[in-house]
Each structure stands twice: as C-alpha cells, then as structure tokens.
Write a structure and sequence with these properties.
By secondary structure, the chain is of the alpha+beta class. It contains 14 helices and nine strands. The protein has three domains: 87 residues, Taq DNA Polymerase, Chain T, domain 4 (Up-down Bundle); 105 residues, Alpha-Beta Plaits (2-Layer Sandwich), CATH 3.30.70.370; 138 residues, 5' to 3' exonuclease, C-terminal subdomain (DNA polymerase, domain 1, Orthogonal Bundle). α8 packs across α9.
Length: 380
Amino acid sequence: MKYHAELEILEKKLWETAGMEFNVNSPKQLGEVLFDKMKISTKGLKKTAGGARSTRESELIKLRADNPIVDEILSYRELQKLLSTYIDTIPSVVDEHNRVHTKLHQTGTTTGRMSSSEPNLQNIPSHGVMGGVIRQGFVAEKGYSFIALDYSQIEMRVLAILANDEKLVGVFKRGEDVHSAVASFVFGVPENEVTKDMRRKAKVINFGIIYGMGVNALRENLGTSREEAQTFYNNYFEKFPTIADYFEKVKQGARSKGYTETFFGRRRYFGGINSAIPYIRASAERMAMNAPLQGTATADIIKISMKKAHDALEEKKLINDAHLLLQIHDELVYEVKDEKVKEVIKTVKDAMENCVKFDVPLVANASVGKNLGEMKKVTE
C-alpha cells in the first residue's frame, strides 16, 4: 500500500541519518540512538516515571534545532499514527452499507463537551496532505451532501461575555477581526497599520490566554525571547485589565470553592487547585481558567444549538432530509438531500446564531461538499 511504502522510506531515511538500523518504535532503542550514539543533549528534557530519558513527542519537539533526525522521527510517528488510527482501521469497522458508526458520549469529558470513540471521529485530521486524503474517505450517500457549520471564534466571544470586557465586546459587535483588533490595542497602532506578523502574534496570545498559557509557553509559540514574550504578555493585560481581573476572580473562586462554573452553571471541580506542589497547583489554575470558556462554548452552547436546530428542522419539515452525523467541538456535521442543502444551511445557521441571546453576537460559518476532504465554504 502507498502509505505503508512511504513509512518504510521514512524508516530507512532515519537509519541512514543515525548511521545504523534500530527499532524506531522502541523508546529504549530510540533513546540510545539519540542520546548515546548521536550525543544529543538531554538538558531540559523530562524523564519517564521509571527514570528513563523521555522520547515523547512533547520532549522531542524541544530538540528540533539540535539535529535533523528529530523532524524525521516526528514525521515517521505522524504517518504511523494516521495509518494505525484511520487508514488501516476505519475500513475494518464499516457496516454492510459501507457506513461507519461512532459512539458519542454525553459525559465523556471534564468540561462537559461530547466525546467520540470506537472510532474517534471528532479527531479526524484536517491539516496537511494526509489529513485531506483521510477526510476524502468519508463520502456522502448518493443524492446527499455533507454540510458543516461551525462557530466563528466561539471561545474568544465567550471570553468577551464572561469577562464583560468593553473593548472585546465592541470588537465583536462591530464585526471586526478580533486578532487584528487585539494587535492594534497591544501594539498601539491603528488597525489598518497592523502587519501580518503583529496579527500572528496577537492570534497566538489570544488562543494562549484561553488555555491559560504562561510566559514560557507563549515564548515557544511566538518563537521569540522570554523577555519579548513577557513584555507582550504584560502589554496584553495592561490593555485588557478587565480580562486580567476576570481570570484572577476565576482562580480565586476555584481556590475557595474547589470548582468553576460555566455561564449556564455547569461545574468542574479541581482537586489540585490548593496543592502545596507548585506544578500541580499551576496546572489546576490553567485548567480552571479555561474550563468556563470551553465548557460554555463547546459543551453548553453547542448542545443548546443542536436542540434548537433539531426543533427548527422539525418545524420546517426538513428533519427527514437532514441527518445530524457528528458534533465536533464547536461544529455540527449533517448529511442532507442535495435539493434541500440551501434551506437546511439557513435553518441550522439561524438556530446556532440565535440559540442564546448574548451582548456578543454568535456567528456560524457553513461549508458543503460530497466528502469531508473537499468541503467548500458557503458565502451569503
């Protein structure tokens, strides 16, 4: 098979770079090759629970600049994972109608969003050549098309709502690009003078703030010095003090009550929030900062919108022409009769955008295609 042959080529390339043959899938042998034979420094690397030198992806990424073999290992592992998880596995679990069925779990995550298993269809890769190839394998029935509707920047919108930050609320009310707007505030330039690099940096910190990213993680994601990352981090919260206050209140609330709440009251508990061990406490604080945002957006709002969309489709007598297949974080995927696509998109989009009334508008974007790898955005 084509991709198995590619995996063999990658394996031989690894052997050539290392100057010897070894079992790439053996952490022990891989560690010996990297750290003993090739003398790559282990400074700053974590160890396994048994005390061995870790060759996990998160640790190998730290070594990328030290030797080209690291990128080769990561490429090998990525292809191997795609083969074992999707290309080799999915065809073996289809039914007699060539359809694959996943299990969706209402309480599968700590934040309240749904999870998928056997197989996990919420995690189908979407980037790169291989991601496109795998997604093309999911094909709509004859006479039907897939439609997908996903919320635009839902967690940033929820942050604006929960923090009640006037600047961020104003950005979304005016329909501005949030990353360019934040860059304008942080760098102190008019929005029409925001460069691509400024917007990129603002996007990194916007998403970083949502996930409780600290200065070191920000430095890695920005590809800059710690000093610059610290300055950027400080500038962000100086320009958005309401957001800084909001996150501090969330952490304080979690410390005193032991849990956080979403906009709708969904609780998540944090046993380590008052731990005497700094890294456990810091990890719990990061999760506590993110939980109300992710829980409100990809658990509560999306579930409410699913129900609203179902009711709207029933009311318009479209329910038998539009079958909800998947909920993937902030996205709903339907299989729809070709002649009903436009009507269903409008119905579901309206339901998603009006499922809850906030000061900040919710926006859903639609795409359509005959397979999941070739979905085209739908313009108004």
